[in-house]
Design a protein that fits this description.
The structure is a single chain. By secondary structure, the protein is mainly alpha-helical. The protein contains two helices and two strands; from the N terminus they run E-H-H-E. A two-stranded parallel ribbon has the order 1-2.
């Protein structure tokens, strides 16, 4: 069993959550809208807008999966004393 942990500060965890929410609630719907608009243009085989939207969608979905995995396996550390290396 692989015990992957991602060491994060509470602040880093919150930043990752915010980025995940942005991707899910803002960026993903924007890309879906762009895909619908590109499909409406017709022939998808030579549609650069469609290809660009599909590529962006793949990048967003990959980043969402990465962030979800990291947040699920996060270990929050207390980083109050910044002069000590743990």
């Amino acid at each position: 069993m692989n015990d992957n942990k991602f060491i994060m500060t509470a602040e880093g965890y919150l930043q990752a959550e915010e980025e995940l929410n942005e991707l899910k609630n803002v960026r993903r719907p924007e890309v879906i809208k762009a895909l619908k608009e590109a499909r409406a243009q017709g022939d998808l085989s030579e549609n650069a807008d469609y290809d660009a939207a599909r590529n962006e969608q793949a990048q967003i979905e990959a980043k969402i999966q990465e962030l979800e995995y990291k947040l699920e396996h996060a270990e929050i550390i207390d980083n109050k004393d910044k002069n000590i290396v743990n």
